[in-house]
Amino acid sequence: MNNIGSNERFVRWQTALRDYVTFFNNLLLTLGLGILGFIFSSLNDSKFELKCLQKFFFTSSLIILIISMAIGIFACLSRLSDFRATLKKINKELNSEDFQREKNLMDIYGKTTWCLFYIQIYTFLISIISLITSLMIFYNEKLF
Fold first, then answer.
1. Residues contacting residue 113 through CB under 8 Å, at least 6 positions apart
2. Above 60 in pLDDT, residue 46?
3. 3-class DSSP state of 90
4. CA–CA separation, 19 vs 113, rounded Å?
């Protein structure tokens, strides 16, 4: 009886983890798209002229943000592949077939997803720090 309760708790927490990872991945992609819009709208402003160091941080922010968003998309694709492999494994389990290949794929996709997810977070944070640095340099006189 205790084992059944533990299994139900595990499934419940695994579902919560999957949902929060999906939410956070989507949140980072949405914020990235919004920040990308801000960056491009800033470039259209004639008063927004960046100097050497400002250009470096602003451009690096743009590039790293695009990389972060691409990694987020690859993480989503990896998760979808993981779900697909899981469904194939369950189908083969129900039909009493060998499913070792699907288990291996699930393991690879799961590890890839988590790796990409952490890289997405780090690149997003680096991009934000770089953008804030460039804006603080640009608006130095107004801020301080």
1. 21, 75, 78, 79, 82
2. yes
3. helix
4. 14
